[in-house]
Design brief:
The chain is of the alpha+beta class. The protein is 58% helix and 19% strand. Among the domains are: 6-128, no CATH class; 272-404, Heat Shock Protein 90, CATH 3.30.565. It has 10 helices and 12 strands. The strands form 3 sheets. It has a 5-stranded antiparallel β-sheet with strand order 1-5-4-3-2, with helices on both faces. Strands 7-9-10-12-11 form a 5-stranded mixed β-sheet. The longest helix is centred in the first third of the chain and has 49 residues, at 6-54. It is rod-shaped and about 150 Å long. It starts with 5 loop residues before the first helix and ends with a strand.
Length: 405
């Protein structure tokens, strides 16, 4: 029940209650019919016994008419009609008493009482309309309850409609639409939630705009002095100081490039550029980006085509291979590729912490290694953007990073 949506829960609840009401209505109608039938038969017995017991007394015409009126019955005088009723009607009851024999016939909505005593017979039509009024009243009450039930259901669903709209707008924001406007016309709890989310979105948008502006300005402002410093170093005489300065400037430039990648793949407005490429081509491009000794790499590729963002996947593989080269014990990396996954394998000690620890930015196993701890952070963000999965396991004294396509 925890994972059922509010709308589905309310629909199920209303359907359940409606089913119970319908079941209760039919049960009531069925029981009421049975009770009415028993009451009718008891009434018919009283009428029959009264008529059969007084038949020998030869009551006057006026007395009989008065009895018929009080008992709400009407005699069927024509013999042909009597025979038709007996032949076509359904016999729902018959019985005998010391006064004579009684049969009840029904045709449509009409009931008939057929009486016999000592060769004489009489047929009466029941003129009581109370049962029809009772049935109509029951149907009216049931219709009124159903209408009220439907009214409350519609009101409830209309009250929840803004919540569904709010959910769609929040999902749109989560998918990267920073310009979404959360509407909140009502002042109830749902409207207050909408207002709170709208305020939060504006605040987050301002923070992101400030962050992006800061990142771009910082990278732009740092690029110029780093470039000038790198050029100036070339004029320094060869020696340990020159090599140290060159390495420092190259590492600063590398950091700026890594931050540029991070800024690109983490922005909310980022969009994938999907195209059909071969895995071998992506592997080749990744190796070219590294500018490393290709003899350090062992590549086993089952060439397959896939639809992906080539630049992003290339960057992710470049970082995986770069990490394997930096942290591997023998600086040799094996790359195994098939249509389901890409594995980057290197000899070395197992990771000290769970993989999630290394997916955070600026995280390194050992500070003495080169790099800035952004490699796996970038890889993880790219795999999420492309809908892939990144896994790690340790096997045969080797660290294995597997990118499941």
């Amino acid at each position: 029940m925890k994972n059922i949506s509010v709308n589905l829960f309310i629909n199920i609840l209303f359907i359940l209650v409606l089913s119970l009401l319908i079941g209760a209505f039919f049960a009531f109608v069925s029981l009421d019919k049975e009770r009415q039938k028993n009451a009718q038969i008891a009434r018919y017995k009283l009428i029959s016994n009264a008529l059969l017991s007084t038949a020998s007394l030869n009551p006057s015409h006026e007395d009989m008419e008065k009895f018929y009126k009080n008992s709400r019955v009407k005699p069927v005088a024509i013999d042909a009609n009597r025979e038709l009723i007996r032949s076509k009607g359904k016999n729902i009851f018959e019985g005998e008493s010391v006064y004579g024999r009684m049969q009840i016939f029904t045709i449509g909505d009409s009931n008939y009482i057929y009486l016999q005593r000592y060769g004489t017979n009489m047929m009466l039509k029941d003129m009581d309309t109370k049962k029809e009024v009772r049935l109509r009243l029951t149907i009216f009450i049931a219709t009124l309850i159903a209408a009220l039930f439907l009214f409350f259901y519609i009101v409830t669903m209309r009250k929840l409609a803004p919540l569904k709209k709010l959910n769609r707008e929040i999902l749109e924001f989560a998918n990267g639409n920073m310009d979404v406007k959360i509407t909140h016309k009502s002042s109830d709890e749902i409207g207050q939630i909408g207002q709170s989310f709208d305020d939060a979105i504006h605040y987050i948008k301002k923070l992101l705009d400030s962050k992006n502006l800061f990142m771009r300005n910082m990278m732009h402002e740092l690029k110029t002095p780093i470039t000038k410093g790198r050029i100036a170093v070339e004029m320094v005489e060869e020696g340990l100081s020159k090599k140290t300065l060159i390495l420092a400037f190259e590492r600063m430039n590398e950091l700026i490039n890594e931050l540029a990648h991070v800024e690109r793949i983490t922005t909310q407005g980022f969009k994938k550029e999907l195209e059909e490429v071969t895995i071998s081509h992506v592997i080749k491009e990744s190796i070219e980006l590294l500018i490393c000794d290709k003899s350090q790499l062992i590549v086993e590729v089952e060439d397959e085509k896939l639809i992906t963002d080539e630049k992003l996947l290339t960057l992710a593989l470049k970082n995986l291979i770069d990490n394997a080269l930096k942290y591997g014990e023998n600086r040799e990396v094996k790359i195994i590729v098939n249509k389901k996954s890409i594995k980057v394998i290197s000899k070395g000690k197992s990771l000290e912490y769970p993989l999630a620890y290394y997916l955070e930015p600026f995280t390194q196993e050992e500070k003495r290694h080169s790099g800035f701890g952004l490699g796996l952070y970038i890889v993880n963000n790219i795999t999420k953007r492309l809908g892939y999965n990144l896994h790690y396991y340790y096997k045969d004294s080797s660290n294995v990073f597997e990118l499941q396509l």
